[in-house]
Design a protein that fits this description.
alpha/beta; 23% helix; four-stranded antiparallel β-sheet
């Protein structure tokens, strides 16, 4: 059936699909198709599609009825998707097992269902997972045109922060020098490098660093990503005074690394500082800590942003701060 579609190159397919879906423009009644190395994404209202996209008519099949976990359970379960892994946060073991069975029996393209077994703990910020269906804890997650191989049992990765990561990395200019002080498998570092930046990614976790290197190769930016294993306070002396942009995504303890961030900053540097604070004053403690550490710099807070609610009365926030010598 001929329907209006956005036509993009294959490598831009996932990012475009997410943007269209976020804006309520993706037509879920028809299939996304591939032809001549182009992806055709059906849309509900072609007049509302941004001018940057080519809208054409294309013959796409009608989508068969999708069976959701909610259809099988009779209620809407809460879960997150990470590649082909579905992540549950259920405290009741019997309920978790029911949800896992429904997820596997649904139309979702899922290989594994895992339930949270612990809080994030330890210096590597990992958690235990109980695999309820399928096997294995490795996957490849895709967001905004990048793909990330990872093992949920060995590294920290939150799919909930995709929009925030995109917000930050969209600010990166070609030829910038970026330091990601707690890089993990590269969800900030890889898209920054894809925009043309030279990126130094540091992490204590040796498994995360190996995945960072693999993901740099996977996304064709290996020549622009330097992955360093270790404590950023001890392994970055070669990069003093060089960074045009610094990412400090280590809520709860980023303030302990501010002296290092200031030492890495160039004469004009943007710092993305993540924090978790009480809702009564979510930005004040971080801003005061930055101003105290940034001696010799003019400090300008460009953005104060609440990323998400972290716990009752606690907010995960970000300060985008420009340091000028």
């Amino acid at each position: 059936m001929e329907v209006p579609c956005v036509r993009v190159a294959r490598e831009a397919g996932e990012e475009t699909r997410e943007r269209l879906d976020d804006r309520g423009l993706l037509d879920h009644d028809h299939e996304i198709t591939v032809a001549d190395d182009r992806i055709y994404l059906p849309v509900t209202d072609p007049s509302a599609v941004a001018d940057e996209y080519a809208v054409v008519t294309h013959d796409v099949p009608t989508r068969e009825t999708q069976v959701t976990p909610a259809d099988l359970l009779g209620f809407e379960p809460s879960y997150e998707r990470l590649g082909e892994i579905v992540l549950l946060h259920e405290d009741d073991g019997d309920r978790a097992a029911r949800v896992a069975t429904a997820v596997m029996d649904s139309s979702l393209p899922v290989a594994t269902v895992a339930n949270r077994g612990s809080k994030v703990t330890g210096e590597f910020r990992t958690r235990d997972w109980e695999v309820l269906a399928g096997d294995g804890t490795t996957t490849v997650h895709r967001e905004y045109g990048c793909s990330f191989a990872l093992d949920i049992a060995e590294v920290y990765f939150s799919p909930r922060l995709a929009t925030e990561r995109h917000r930050v990395t969209q600010q990166v200019a070609a030829d910038e020098r970026v330091v990601d002080m707690f890089a993990g498998v590269g969800p900030f570092a890889i898209p920054a490098a894809k925009r043309g930046a030279d990126v130094v990614g540091v992490d204590l976790n040796p498994v995360a660093i190996e995945y960072l290197r693999e993901n740099a190769r996977r996304n064709d930016v290996a020549e622009r990503v330097t992955a360093i294993e270790g404590d950023v306070r001890e392994v970055t002396s070669d990069y003093t005074d060089r960074a045009d942009r610094i990412v400090m995504n280590l809520p709860h303890s980023a303030d302990a690394f501010l002296d290092t961030a200031v030492s890495l900053a160039s004469d004009d540097c943007v710092v993305h500082y993540y924090d978790i604070q009480h809702e009564d004053d979510p930005f004040g403690p971080g801003e005061r800590a930055i101003r105290e550490a940034a001696e010799g710099y003019e400090v300008a807070v460009e953005t104060r942003r609440t990323v998400r609610s972290y716990a009752p009365h606690e907010q995960n926030v970000c300060l985008d701060v420009r340091l000028r010598a």
